[in-house]
Structures are given as structure tokens and as C-alpha cells.
Amino acid sequence: MQYLAEGLRLPTNGLDYTILAIYFVVVLGIGFAARASVKTSLDFFLSGRSLPAWVTGLAFVAANLGATEILGMAATGAQYGVAVVHWYWIGAIPAMVFLGLVMMPFYYRSKVRSVPEFLLQRFDRSAHLLSSILFAFAAILIAGVNLYALSIVVEALLGWDRWVAIVVAGVFVLLYITIGGLSSAIYNEVLQFFVILAALIPLTLLGLKRVGGWDGLTGSLEKQHGADFMSAWGGTGIGDANPLGANWLTIILGLGFVLSFGYWTTNFAEVQRALSAKNLSAAKRTPLIAAFPKIFIVFAVMIPGLVAAVIVPNIGSTRSGLTYNDAIPLLMRELLPNGVLGIAVTGLLAAFMAGMAANVSSFNTVFTTDIWQRYVKKDQSDAYYLRFGRVITAVGVLASIGTAFIAASFSNIMTYLQTLFSFFNVPMFVVFIIGMFWKRASMKSGVWGLVAGTTAAMVNYFVVYKQGIIDIPSDQGANFVSAIVGFVAGAVVMVAVTLFTAPKPEAELAGLVYGTTSPDADEAPEEGDDAWYRKPALLGWGAIVLAALCYLPYSL
User: Fold this and answer.
1) Which of 25, 224, 492, 531 lies 20 to 30 Å from 443 when distance is taken between CA atoms?
2) Which residues sit opposite 442 in a β-bridge?
3) Alpha-carbon span 274 to 286, nearest angstrom
4) What's the rounded Cα separation, in Å, for the pair 459 and 71?
């Protein structure tokens, strides 16, 4: 992410700082209130599996409302136009529905505390350890993205030194997670969800008013950039040139299937919210509840980017002195009065803190339960793991401060995050999906699928793309291709390894593979639970209907 322009310093006053201070006091208050419920390690890492669906659902979507969503997606809108909707209607909603209806029954009934722990049950210790290390590493990198983005926004908008912004944000996230565990993070994410909307909605409405409504916005941008700029699919034919650097096939397969399903169904920072739900029904509804606001949030981040492209026609060029990442701050300076400006700044900070907290809380769970407890310090008391979880949270925050500066080497935070997803989430997804739907997949195929998928994605990005062996028009297009390559390589290697290694005993697959029943579940499925799920034909028709609904907005 490039530095925000110096000229974007906001005219904040005492009222704005008061609103910001009140928010921080409330955040810490929630942490102390949640502390009373933290008595065991399960309470700390998974809220004792006691939260209602509406809370976990809002936390699920808020955990994703970080640096990517606010600055990254607005920047993408200013640069690529309406094509930004692909990251929502193609790259999020179908995968969120799939997670809720298909994968959560596996996760929740197996009583796992993390996503990598599921691989231990389905495959073996080697797959479990490798996936735990990869996820912990990725979580710290992504937490660093949010912290870095927060620091440069605060430096440019409020005039704070960058190190001050990093320390203040890191300390607050550390305090409320260490004090109240996942419950504190989740309840703060619910608060942050509404604060973020309170910041983005006025910005969107006032921005539209400034440029003459939707018709004025469309007319101006089509005149500047052509009709394709305001069309989701314009210029995406195979062989056609477009700023996104991707055609319809790589968008659907790379973003819509591999990257999307890899992120939403195996990223523990999201799945952890559903695992903290009070029962299976609430766990399944968590991503479904989150999917509804996700449909509409795209407008609150896309429209400000489009408006910025009208107000500064040459945004993103050296002539304007503004980068695409300046879209949101530009509108905040131009449109918002004091008071509302304070809410907007608070909303930005809330977004970054939510993204960082989600990754830090998932990191401390995986590191404690999947690495430390499983392979380093076994058979300790529950109180020991609770104390260690708090300590490793502090370590995770400190590590995030370090990785924040890795993000500085990338000119666009969205590109950086998509690169990380193609390296880490996609290989895990292919192992999960094959393991869940193919009983023959052997125990050793899991770890080799992870190795092959991660390696292939990295080779495609750093060698094939960066060395110019194949001409891919943009970093985003390269990420889509890397995701597809990683998925295919992982799947092929899993099948090949399975042919020469022993499968897991069928008795140990109960509840872990499609069509089997958990050993502690009743033979007759609970009505309204997963009876539909045992009907593949119904699942197929459901997928067709879902695909049609996802494409419908593009034809309007």
C-alpha cells in the first residue's frame, strides 16, 4: 500500500477526538466484561461454544471488514470500476453458503477447536502439523497488513507518528483479546460492524449527491473510461484487454471457486466465529446470516471509490498526486463535517482492528492447541493452556508489528492479500474438499497435497509470472492463475499419492466424510439438521439455483 497523500490531512477537532476516545473506552469495557466468562481454555479460544447465531454471524462478516474491505475495495473500485462486485457476488456469497450448509456439520460435529485439527482427524499428524504452521504464519502476515494499513492512515489523516499508531492499535487489540479471549473479540466485532457502517453509509450517500446521483456517476465515468468501466463483465472475454488483467474464466475459476472457497471455508479466522456458536444449527446459520449484509456492503465500499474517480479524474496517476488507496480519505476530507468525521475515522480504526483481532485470535488458538499442546507441552492442566494462550497472544501482536512492514513492499494491499490466499488457503481447501468427499483419499495424501499446492502456487507467481515466462497482464490476474495452478497441483498429487499409500480405516472416517455419520450422533438425523444433505441430487440442484442467483445481478 502506498503512502497516503500529505494533502489528505483531515480537519479533526475536539469533538472528533472525543468520539474516538469513547470508542476505545467501550472496546476495553467489553473486554473486561467478557473476562468474567473466561474460566477455561475453551472459553478463551471458542467462547465456550455458547454464542447465539446473530452474534457469531455479525462477527463473521466484521472479521472480514478489515484493511482489504475498506481501503482495498474502494481503491479497486476507483481503479477497475464495477468489476469490484466480483469479489462479493462471485468471490464470497457462494462460498459462505457452501460453508454453512455443507462444511459446518463436519467441523462442528467433530468437536475440533480449529480448522487444522480437522485435518488431524481426517488424515494424519504430518498434514495437521504442516497446516497448523502454514496457517499460523499466514495469520500473522495478514494481521500485519491491517496494522500497517491502520498506521499509515492514522499518520496521514490525524498527524500521529506511524510508530505511535502501530503501538496504540496493537496495545488495544492485545488488551481486549488477552483480557476477554474470543468472546471479547467477537462482541467487539459486532460493535465494530455497526461503527463501520455508520462511517461508510454517510460517505456513500453524500458522495452520490456530490456527483449527481447514480446517473451522474455513470455518465461521468463512462465518458472518462468507457462503458466497460460500469459493467461487471465488460471486456472480460478471453483475449480481450481490461485493467483487471483477467478474463471471465479466470474470474470464475480463480476467484469465484478456488480463492473464494479456499478463503471462506478453511480460513480459521472466519470459521472460528462459527465454531463458537452454541449448537450446530447456530453454527450453520452463522455464515448464512453474514452473507446477507455481505451482498450489500459492496455498494458502501465500491461507490466511494467510483465517486473519487469522478472528483479526481486522474486519480492513481502522478499528475493527481493521489493513489487509488486515497479514495476513502479523499471523500472523508471533502464531504464529512466534524462529528461525522470523527465517526468515520473511528469506523476506519474499527475496521483495521477487527481484521487484526480476527487473525490474532485465530493465531493464538492454532498455535496453542494445534502446535504447543499437541507437539511441545502435552498433558498439562487446562489452566496452563489458558495462561499460555494469553502469552502467545502478546507474541502474535508483536509479530504482527514486524510483518506490518512486509506489506510496505506491495503497492496494493488487495494484491498482497490475494497473493497470500493463493499460497496458503487454496492448498488447504483442495485437501479439505477431496478429503471430505472421497473416502479413499489416503492418510499421506493430505500432507503431500498441501506441499504440492503451496509450491505450485508460489512457483507460478514468483517464476512463471514475475520472470515473464508467461505474460499475465496484472498481479491480480497472476493471483487468479496461481490459485488455479495450486488447486490443480494439489488435487493431482493427492490422487497420485492415494494410489500408492494406505487409506484411513473406514471406521475412523465416521462423521468426517460425506455420507457418513458421526459415531456420537443418532442414526436418524435430527429433522431440519442435515437430512437434506444426504441427497446429492438436491445438492446439485441447489448449486445450480445458487449460481443463477449469483449471476442475476449482472444481467440487470
Assistant:
1) 531
2) 503
3) 6
4) 29
Contact between 465 and 482 (Cβ < 8 Å): yes
Q: Which residues contact 481 (CB under 8 A, 6 or more apart)?
A: 250, 254, 460, 465, 472
Helix, strand, coil fractions of the chain, as percent rounded to 5: 75, 0, 25
Determine the pLDDT at residue 535: 44
Distance CA 281, CA 264 (A): 19
- Which residues are within 8 A (CB) of 407 and not within 5 positions of it... i.e. 6 or more apart? 1, 144, 145, 148, 149, 413, 416
Cα(354)–Cα(62) distance, integer angstroms: 7
Dihedral angle of Cα 354, 355, 359, 365, to the nearest 10 degrees: 20
| Domain CATH for 192 | 1.20.1730.10
Report, as ranges of residue numbers, the positions in the chain whose pLDDT lies below 70.
Answer: 1-9, 43-48, 66-68, 152-153, 156-158, 162, 176, 180-182, 235-236, 238-246, 320, 408-414, 473-474, 517-556
Q: Is residue 89 part of a domain?
A: yes
Neighbours of 491 (CB within 10 A): 18
Let me know if residue 151 belongs to a domain. Answer: yes
Phi, psi of 249 (to 5 degrees): -70, -45
Q: CB neighbours (10 Å) of residue 276?
A: 28
Q: What is the per-residue pLDDT for 497?
A: 94
- List, as one string, the DSSP characters of 220-243: HHHHHH-GGGG-SSTT-STT---T
Closest CA to 242 of 467, 474, 461, 484: 474
Task: Please give the grid coordinates belonging to residue 520.
Answer: 456420537
Cell for 213?
Answer: 446521483
| DSSP, res 65 | -
Domain that holds residue 359: 50-411+532-555
Residue 113 lies in a domain: yes
- Helix ranges restricted to H, 312-381: 327-335, 340-365
CA 76 to chain centre: 16
> One-letter amino acid identity for 236?
T
C-alpha dihedral (53, 54, 55, 56), degrees to nearest 10: 50
- Contact call for residues 96 and 64 (beta carbons, < 8 A): no
**Full-model pTM:** 0.77
11, part of any domain: no
Encode 321-332: b = buried (16+ Cβ within 10 Å), e = exposed. ebbbbbbbbbbb
211: which 3 cell numbers? Answer: 456527483
DSSP state of 110: T
Look at residue 15 in the predicted model and tell me its pLDDT: 83
Residue 285 to residue 283: CA distance in whole angstroms: 5
Q: Which helix (H) or strand (E) holds 427?
A: helix 413-437
- Residues 6+ away with beta carbon under 8 Å from 30: 176, 180, 184, 187, 188, 191
Question: What is the rounded CA–CA span in Å between residue 74 and residue 374?
Answer: 42
CA distances from 371 to 375, 376, 378, 429 (A): 6, 7, 10, 20
One-letter amino acid identity for 66?
Answer: G
Total count of domains within the chain: 1
Q: How far apart are CA 62 and CA 186, in angstroms?
A: 9
Check residue 534 and give its pLDDT: 41
Rg of the chain in Å (alpha carbons) = 23
